Amino acid sequence: MTDTAAGQLELHGVRDPKLRRVWAFLRVCLVLASIGGTKLLVRRLGWEVLAPNPLFPALVASEVVLLGFLLNGVLLDYKEGETMPAELAAAMECLASEVRGVQVLHPEAEIRSALAALTAFSEALLAWMRDGGGVAVLLDQLDALQQLIEQLRVWNPAPLQARLLLELATIRRHVHRIEVIRETTFVPSVYGMAYLGTGLLTVGLVLTDIEPFSESMFFIGVISFLLIKLLYLITDLDNPFAAGDELSVENVSLRPLALALRRLRGGKEVG
């Protein structure tokens, strides 16, 4: 694969986000079609055993409040995760610039190993953020990179060396935070209540005798669509670093990290 083609894959990804969104919408439509078919069957068999009740709108409102609580919680992590690729990219580019600056002051300084390790770590970081996997290997690479950065203190003044270590600490902190966001589900018990509530409301709508029948189909379709689509959205937003999951749609952009990697590759032979 040529460098240009590889760069396009890094910047835009192999998986088209537009196709993912279309597939997500089709999945919801398939669920709605199954609900509509079930309603027709229930109508034909005379199993509409529930009568319209003034309490039913209150149940719908309660479910909406529950979903709103979940949405608000997962949005906090999503907004935090949205800034991390750019911050990681900036930290790695700053590291590369500072390392190259060491050779400006001391031409005899050996910086090839540090730059090569930084580029290799950047490639591993981008692959990890895109495809997932264990974080232990990535942290081992970060440890090896830090050891090479530590060796630069022979030529690097203490204040500049401290800046390098600070950037490494920023990268390490973000890596651990991304792992926590990936592996932590926001209030699992509330998720269970939301799924159970949506299921019970849908069953209730299907079993309720609403006349005329065309109106009942309309309200069942609209209410079910909003609840199911919102539940899918919340589940997706709970992990904004799931680009490797074919069912995930709403992921943070890794473009800043891919751009930084291209710049590092272009300059890794310096030294």
Describe the fold and architecture.
The chain has nine helices and no strands. The protein is elongated, with a radius of gyration of 26 Å. The longest helix is centred in the N-terminal third of the chain and has 51 residues, at 55-105. The chain is mainly α and 271 residues long. It has one domain.
The averaged pLDDT comes out at 88
How much helix is in the residues?
over 70%
Total helices: the number is: 9
Structural class, by secondary structure, is mainly alpha
Give the overall form. elongated
Topology, number of strands? 0
Run of helices and strands: HHHHHHHHH
Largest sheet: none
- Unreliable stretches covering 5 or more consecutive residues: 1-14, 267-271
CA radius of gyration is 26 Å
End-to-end CA span: 27 Å
Work out the strand percent.
under 5%
Overall number of domains: 1
Summed up:
With 271 residues, this protein is mostly helical. The chain contains 9 helices and no strands. It has helices at residues 3-12, 17-45, 55-105, 112-131, 136-150, 158-183, 188-207, 213-237, 255-267.
Features:
271 residues, mainly alpha, disordered C terminus
What topology does this entry show?
Elements lengths: L2 H10 L4 H29 L9 H51 L6 H20 L4 H15 L7 H26 L4 H20 L5 H25 L17 H13 L4
Helix pairs in contact: 1-9, 2-8, 3-4, 3-6, 3-7, 3-8, 3-9, 4-5, 4-9, 5-6, 7-8
